[in-house]
Amino acid sequence: MGEWLARAAQIEKGDKQAALSCQCQIGTVSSVSVPAITQPEISNRLLSAKEETAIRAWLALILETDPATIAEVISQCQQDADVRDNFIGRAAADLPRPDPIPDDRRICDQCANLIARRCQSAKRGEIVASRNFEPISDLLHRCEAYIPNADDPDRRIGNERWPGLGRNRERKDRQHQALDSSGNANKL
After folding, report:
1. Which end of the chain has fewer beta carbons closer than 10 Å to its terminal beta carbon, N or C?
2. Using CA atoms, how far apart are residues 146 and 16, in angstroms rounded to an integer?
3. Which residues touch 167 (CB under 8 Å, ≥6 apart)?
4. What phi and psi, each to the nearest 5 degrees, are found at residue 2?
5. 119 φ, ψ (degrees, to nearest 5)
6. Torsion angle of alpha carbons 88, 91, 93, 97, nearest 10°?
7. What pLDDT digit, counting tens, does each position of 86-132 carry?
8. Highest-confidence range of 14-28, 30-44, 150-164, by mean pLDDT?
9. pTM to 2 decimals?
């Protein structure tokens, strides 16, 4: 099993001197002999698939790639409730958590229409704004004229990504047409 595991076990047992004497380099994992546990607490439940996935993800996070070490950790977690709880706790503390509500808004700096701090879509008259519109570039929002730049994995343009925005534009266009044709401010 990897030295990091032996060192972690020593730290948890309070044997800081032995933990400090353990030679361990970041990014490298080598095998050490770990004394067998004489009386492991046999778990009364199996390791769930979700728990195993979390443990494997945590091992990948700490750059543990040795299949034998990974198999040993999983085996120990299946047999010993304390070991399982230890690794699940580490995974819960160290693994990144996804946003509970993913934010689909973008900043203008992520849009291909922003050139030299000016919105080219406004310049072409595609959005309601002055022709030399300089948006607040770090403000999250949804824009019907959004065009993803090369770094955005979602290649949909604004009116495909946020279809409700186009309806607002159509309503405003109808209002402007009614104003232009009648000469007064009658709204539809």
Report:
1. C
2. 56
3. none
4. -65, 155
5. -85, 115
6. -120
7. 999 998 888 887 766 778 888 888 899 999 999 998 999 888 888 88
8. 150-164
9. 0.40
Please provide the DSSP assignment of 6-35 as one string.
HHHHHHHTT-HHHHHHS---TT---B---P
Work out the percent of the chain whose per-residue pLDDT is above 70: 63
Tokens representing residue 2 in the block: 């990897």
Which of helix, strand or coil describes residue 148? strand
Q: Note the helical H segments in 62-184.
A: 67-79, 81-94, 120-123, 158-161, 163-182
Q: Which residue has the tokens 């709204």?
A: 187
CA separation for the pair 8, 172 (Å, rounded): 64
> Which helix (H) or strand (E) segment is 114 a member of?
strand 114-115
C-alpha closest to that of 87 among 113, 105, 61, 67: 61
CA angle 172, 178, 180 (to 5 degrees): 100
β-pair partners for 181? none
Rounded alpha-carbon distances, angstroms, from residue 117 to 50, 72, 108, 133, 150: 46, 55, 9, 9, 18
> In 3-state terms, what secondary structure has residue 52?
helix
Phi and psi, residue 80, nearest 5°: -125, 120
